[in-house]
Amino acid sequence: MDKTTNSAYRTSSTNGGSAISAAAADIQKLPAPRPSPPLEMSGPPGSIAAAPAPTPPPAPSSSSLFGVMHNQYHPSTMTASPYDYDAYRMAINDLSGYRSSSSRTPTTTYKNSITHPINVSWMIPSWLNVLLQEDMRLPKGVRDLNDLADRERLPDLMTPSLEEALARAQQRYPNWRPRGNMGLCSCPGKKVRLDGPVNGRAKIERDLDLDFARLQQLGCKRVICCLFDEELAFLGSPFPQYLQAATNHGIDVVRIPMVEGSTPETFIEMEAVLDKIDETTKAGDSVIAHCRGGVGRAAVVACCWMLRQGLIQDNRSVIAWVRRYRTSKAIETDEQEFYLEGYHIWKTTNGHPAFAKHFEDELMLRRRRKEDFQLRARQAQELDIARAQRKAFQEEEDVEQRERELRVEAALEEKRLAATAPLPGQAFSASSLPPPRESMVPDNEFDFSLAASPVPTSLQRQPGQ
To answer: Whole-model pTM?
Structure first.
């Protein structure tokens, strides 16, 4: 790239998209891409020879700009390509923050593997993955990946290194391909809320074969599954069917099951999984980790991998990075943050077993305290629910009792009125009415002697009055 194009990069903040447009125009002047022959790597000692490259796909069209694949309703997903310069093209697109108009997610009530192909969030952007294709080291002048968050500095940091990396890679490895990446996604074949949307969240009914076919298309050769068999079955992807679908698409499955919101119990367990990830990425293939939604447990695996590679310097920064490229909800619990803090310290001590033992004991203690707290909270909640149910039952009983009393009173009133009503064809008469209350006293009980008693003298009428 000449000085004119390089200067256009430096003025990208003031000229809007002119820098990217100039870079893209300059890219078009490159020779047409050519397919790579079968890979016969003669790299450094210890490098893993990749399998023969598959038949290359057709050249990218204008609808899939520079090898960018678009979901129907999701942001574009970068995919590895066997073309020599496609990584450079993708780097330019990713540097520009390119998004197609189809990336705006409309409101929907139903999702499946066709309308919403499984979305993968890559932990290393394509423009950076080009730089890390040889030894996973960061370019000069960059402390860690978070230094690249300010896109105004990217032209000065990335452009020369990008050209050098491409030239060096093509000189050393004529059949060069980008290094494998790591991504996060939700569980393949997931089926939730089958009765319809809940709280604005759509019904999801995915297909295992279609999801694994898409992962294979994205260059994935290994999947890290963080779910137990019971949770896989609950999500509609029983492990035997899950494993068969993955095998049919040439994808290896590595399992590290964790309780939701939790972490592995030891660092050694995590290291064994990270070894498998490194083995795959060094061969130029990608790895994808998932849990239920690819947000909590799978994000822990991704954070540990980036810390181990030295791409991020501390645990807080790696959490910020994953939240930037996956979702702001990534790393869901304090326990997961604590585990990453301990893993970072453990790596700085070169895996000292004493620290690992101390930290793992502390982790288990915290986990037991958390479980006890959750148990007490659950018991208190159940007690409150029982009290509320008893109160509601008592109120219902009171209402029913009052209704019974009202029905009895209504029946008695109806019976009394029926007894006093005239027969059919009988004329109404006053004699049919009940006697007045005053005449209900029997005559033989009336004291007539009171009428014959003399009037007191004080009350008698005097003459002249």
So the answer is: 0.59
Distances in Å between the Cα of 440 and the Cα atoms of 195, 406, 436, 437, 450 are 71, 29, 7, 5, 19
Predicted confidence at residue 223, as pLDDT, reads: 97
- DSSP, collapsed to helix, strand or coil, labels residue 293 as coil
- Residue type at position 139: P
Provide the token pair at 259: 């309780």
Helix axes 334-348, 315-325, angle to 10 degrees: 130
pLDDT higher than 50, residue 65: no
Cα–Cα distance, 235 to 232 (Å, whole number): 5
Residue 433 CB-density burial (10 A; 0-12 exposed, 13-18 middle, 19+ buried) = exposed
pLDDT digits (tens, 9 = 90+) for 377-403: 888 888 888 888 888 889 988 999 999
Cα 239 to Cα 248: distance, rounded to the nearest angstrom: 14
Q: Are 30 and 264 in contact (CB under 8 A)?
A: no
Q: Give the contacts of 131 (CB within 8 A, at least 6 positions apart).
A: 138, 139, 158, 161, 162, 165
- How far apart, in whole angstroms, are the C-alpha atoms of residue 287 and residue 122? 10
How many alpha carbons lie under 13 Å from residue 60 in its C-beta half-sphere?
22
Query: How far apart are alpha carbons 79 and 215 in whole angstroms?
Result: 10
How far apart are alpha carbons 115 and 207 in whole angstroms? 11
Determine the Cα–Cα distance for residues 343 and 73; give it in Å rounded to an integer. Answer: 37
Question: What tokens does 388 get?
Answer: 């509320």
Between CA 227 and CA 206 the distance in angstroms is 17
Cα R_g (the chain), whole angstroms? 40
Torsion of CA 262, 266, 272, 277, to 10 degrees: 40
| Closest to 220 in 3D by CA, of 91, 78, 38 | 78
pLDDT (average), residues 298-318:
92
Residue 387 φ/ψ, nearest 5 degrees: -65, -45
Mean pLDDT of 247-260: 95
* Distances from the Cα of 294 to the Cα of 209, 282, 285, 326, 396, angstroms: 19, 23, 20, 8, 46
